[in-house]
Amino acid sequence: MAFVRHARDLRRESGSGKLRGAGLWLGLLGMWLACGGPGRADGPADSPSAASEMVAHLQYREVDFAPVCSEVKVMRRAGFARELAYGGARLFRGQFVLDRDTNPLLPFAWDIQQRKIYLDLNHNGDLTDDPAGVLAASGRDLQLFRDIRLRFASDGATYQVLVDAHVFEQSGGARVFLYVRSLWEGAVELAGKKWYLAVIDRPDGRIGPPASLKEIGDRMILRPWADRDQPFLWWHATLRYVHALDHVKLVNFPFRYAGNAEVFDAFNLPTRLFVQGQAYRMDYHPESSGNLAAAFRAVHPPLGKLHLGGDNVRRVVLDSGDAGFTAVLDSPASEVEVPVGVYPRQIVLLQRAGFTNVAVGLGNSALAVTESNLPTLAAGGPLENAVAVSTRLSSGTVSLSYQLTNAAGISFRLAFQDERTPPRLEIRQGDSLIAQDRFEFG
User: Coil, strand, or helix at residue 323?
Assistant: First the structure.
């Protein structure tokens, strides 16, 4: 069956396209301990099994793309005890507010005209003793400051996150987007199967799930070992696109500016994980070496059944947030078992036969699974081209937005698409062509 089904009055021009940033080969170092069999046992949710605890030691790695992006709040500040001689007349002094709860702050001065930023990395109010914090903007069209290493303390250890900072003016102030370019990765064996595991930290001073499902927080990548370097899963936008935020491919309003999904199969870091028929309680601890320990403790929550519909389903991720489980279902059958609970976010990865295209979708219906009901999620294709129409009465304008959806209304984005030939719209009255145009990509 066709992967994409075309609507009658919408014609989409397609091209073979190429994956930007060819296949990424990630050098992987894994270390794992065998865990016990998955065995089903009825008992209290999160009832631990100490004999089945396992720890994966993930290696720190820096990459040339940004698997997580987040906007950070900027606060003005009066000044510093000691400052350098700035070359420009326009100066903004402030601090990055990296987390709304623990509030780790990074003070800075931004010389707007000279395209330089001065970071107070040691937080002592002196900008003259941080040579690594003096950065010049790269590129001509935006002020992007590369290779900033943020350091955080957690559980008695210090870890770092590599970021690029995009800084620009707006309404008399400064806005800052941080593009994370580091992760921890390795191998782990779960229920007798070898997996590639990576954790990506949003730089906020803590490693764990976001406070809200409306946020993209720290991320996990969990894929079969054989798929660890598949280029279509590592799809990403190059840095020349960051100024337009065109790289945000999955997250739609109101989540659009909370993060991105260049790694097509990444999902929010869980505290409870269900995969390969086994449930785990998760803990993450930075190590003195700069690496990350990810602990899996087998638990046995009550399970319920779920019916999955649609074609070409490669993976379904059910995310219940910090309160419950994240269920990862690879090549699922039409009926599966998952931990009982409510899953308000669903991520779906579709793959057409022959690996000719991959699509990722985001659903936000409250999917409730109990021990007695059998809910249905229409996760797969076929997909349809559609147009969302909105009007502004004040201006008298009509806005048309392109969407690629399935029968359940889940919005999808394609991995392989030629940005030079975006979808085309034709408006007809009978056989007469009234208007036609192309949608803007992004």
Answer: helix
- Six token digits for residue 196: 């590639």
CB 45 within 8 A of CB 341: no
pLDDT digits (tens, 9 = 90+) for 379-421: 999 999 888 888 877 777 888 888 889 988 888 877 766 666 7
- Partners of 35 in the β-ladder: none
Residue (of 326, 292, 59) closest to 210 by Cα position: 326
192 contacts 34 by C-beta, under 8 angstroms:
no
44 CB contacts (<8 Å, ≥6 apart)? none
Cα-based distances in Å from 261 to 4, 49, 80: 21, 34, 37
Residue 407 burial (10 A CB sphere; 0-12, 13-18, 19+): middle
Q: Is 355 exposed, middle or buried (0-12, 13-18, 19+ CB in 10 A)?
A: exposed
Using the Cα atoms of residue 59, residue 64, residue 70 and residue 76 in order, give the sign of their dihedral.
positive
- Three-class SS of residue 127? helix
DSSP-assigned states of every residue in 145-175: EEEEEEEEEETTEEEEEEEEEEEEEETTEEE
Among 105, 288, 265, smallest CA distance to 195 is for 265
Give the model confidence (pLDDT) of 174-184 as tens digits.
999 888 889 99
Q: 3-state SS of the chain: helix, strand, coil percent to 5?
A: 5, 50, 45
Token duo for residue 20:
């930007």
Candidates 321, 372, 328, 322; CA nearest to 344 is 321
